[in-house]
Amino acid sequence: MPSISAIASSSRSTSAPDGAATLGTVGDPTRIQWTRYRSAGTEVGTPDPERWAPLGFPAPPPDRPWIFGVVVVSANGVVAWRRRDARDDPVRAILGDEARLDRRADRRLMRYLRTIGDVGIGAQTVREQPTLILSPQEPGDERAPELYAFRVARGLSHHPRNIIYSLYGRVPPQHPMLTTPGLSTIILTTPAGRAELTRRGIRDAAVIVEPLLEPGGLARAHTRLRAEHGVRYIACEGGQTLFGALRAARLLDEVFLTTTDVLVDRAAHEGVLTTFDFAAEGATLVAEGRLEPAGVYTFKRWRFGGTRR
Question: Disulfide: which of 18, 66, 191, 204 matches 60 by Cβ 3.0-4.6 Å?
Answer without folding.
Answer: 66
